[in-house]
Design goal:
alpha/beta, UDP-N-acetylmuramoyl-L-alanine:D-glutamate ligase, nine-stranded mixed beta sheet, 13 strands, about 30% helix, about 25% strand, globular
Length: about 300
């Protein structure tokens, strides 16, 4: 099977958890899991010239991520975030600012090098800086690749105007159920999730919208058929949810790019996301054939 060339754009940072510090940032997490799944993946991000930056670079290289697009920032430090976990394993975040990933540099030569890319994965957080917004929107004007928007809202960096501008460039939008209701204008508990997805679809040209629902599973809407697919969640013991959504997205994107049936794409995404939620940190080591239900 031909490996796909996928690029991720956005934050590289260290998650400071009660159990220790772990390399993360949603785009880097996605890149890690895409590499584990056998795809060619390059991370567009920036690191500070410091100890944490050096360690992040080494770990990305060891994970098989192409670091040719990683910029070294001589002024700002490597990003870090303090994450607090609830009793259910969910996380809230406090981000340092300014940090290296607020200034991602993609030179004309690097842009030329990504001309053969199959997909570009991006999120909301890294667009908190004007510099990154300009760089990303320039990349999103290119139509040679699939554009995947992982909404992943992190207050206070969740301006709806920016979110819809980013969604307006996407072929696939992935978000969770809370974000879906918030952006659609409908209310959880009063309105149906599918109605919220349809309302959101009217505000973006995306061909597919995928909604993760925690332990309840996931929902995928396809504009071509105006149809919904649902994958039920399986019972697991949660260690922490950090990075579970990123693993979900990696499996979904990889499967979609290989034109697998949508049911298979959604199932693989759900199983990998569940597995990561049973592990500590966003980048556990694994072999896909040993993930329960992944290769069914």
């Amino acid at each position: 099977m031909e490996r796909k060339q996928i690029f991720t754009f956005g934050e590289a940072l260290w998650d400071c958890l009660p159990a220790g510090i772990f390399l993360g940032g949603a785009p880097v997490n996605v890149a890690y899991h895409l590499s584990c799944l056998g795809e060619k993946v390059a991370a567009m991000t920036s690191l500070g010239r410091d100890l944490l930056g050096n360690e992040a670079m080494e770990r990305m290289e060891n994970a098989g991520i192409d670091v040719s697009y990683v910029h070294w920032d001589n002024e700002w430090p490597t990003g870090a975030v303090k994450a607090k976990l609830t009793e259910k394993g969910n996380a809230t975040y406090q981000f340092l600012s300014p940090v290296a990933w607020d200034r991602i540099i993609v030179t004309p030569a690097l842009e030329e090098g990504c001309a053969g890319g199959d997909a570009l994965v991006y999120g909301t957080l890294a667009q908190r800086s004007e510099h990154n917004r300009k760089t990303l929107f320039r990349l999103l004007e290119k139509d040679h690749w699939e554009r995947i928007y992982d909404v992943n809202l992190r207050p206070p960096f969740d301006d709806p105007k920016l979110v819809f501008a980013l969604a307006g460039k996407a072929d696939l939008v992935k978000l969770n159920d809370d974000e879906t209701f918030a952006l659609s204008g409908l209310k959880a508990g009063e309105d149906d999730l599918q109605e919220a997805v349809r309302a959101l679809a009217e505000k973006t040209p995306a061909q597919k919208i995928c909604v993760t629902r925690g332990g309840e599973g996931a929902l995928l809407w396809d504009r071509t058929k105006d149809s919904f697919l649902e994958e039920k969640g399986r019972t697991i013991t949660v260690e922490d949810t950090v990075g579970a959504g990123d693993a979900f997205l990696a499996a979904l994107v990889g499967s979609l790019l290989h034109e697998k049936p949508l049911e298979e794409c959604l199932r693989k995404a759900a199983r990998l996301g569940e597995y990561v939620a049973t592990q500590r940190g966003a980048m556990p080591a694994y072999q896909v054939e040993k993930i329960p239900g992944f290769l069914e």
